[in-house]
Amino acid sequence: MHIPVLNRSRHPLPEYQTAHAAGLDVRANLAEPVTLKPLQRALIPTGLFLEIPVGYEMQVRPRSGLAYKHGIGIVNSPGTIDADYRGELKVLLVNLSDQEFVVQDGERIAQLVVARHETVQWQPAETLTETQRGTGGYGSTGVQ
Description:
Helix content is 5%, strand content 36%. By secondary structure, it is mainly beta.
C-alpha cells in the first residue's frame, strides 16, 4: 500500500522495526523536550501529514516499551486518523506512572497501524436475533 506523506519533521518517516511488525514507529518532532508529570497528558507533534486511502484508517497505538518501562500510554488508544484528515499527525500521550517523563525530539512515541474498515448503513429493525449471551454486559461471561 502506498500512502502519500508530507514529512515536515527533522526525522525519518515512520518505519517497521522488524520484518513482520504490524506497526510503524513514529517519532516526536519537538523544538524542545516536553515533560509529562504523573497523570499529565500532552499532544505531541510528529511533523507528518498523511493522505490515507478511502476505506482505511491509520490507528495510533502505544509503544509497549514506553508503557512497560515508563508508564506512557495514549489517552484515546487506539486513536484513529480518518481518510479525510489532512492536518498534522499528533499523538496524545499520557503519563500513567508516578514519576516525570521527558519526551525528547526524535523519540519513538507511538506506532501506526493501517486498518481497513467498513461504512455502516443502519437497518432499522423491530427485533434482534436471540443469542446465548443475550443482554449480558460487562463481566457477564465466564462467571456462573
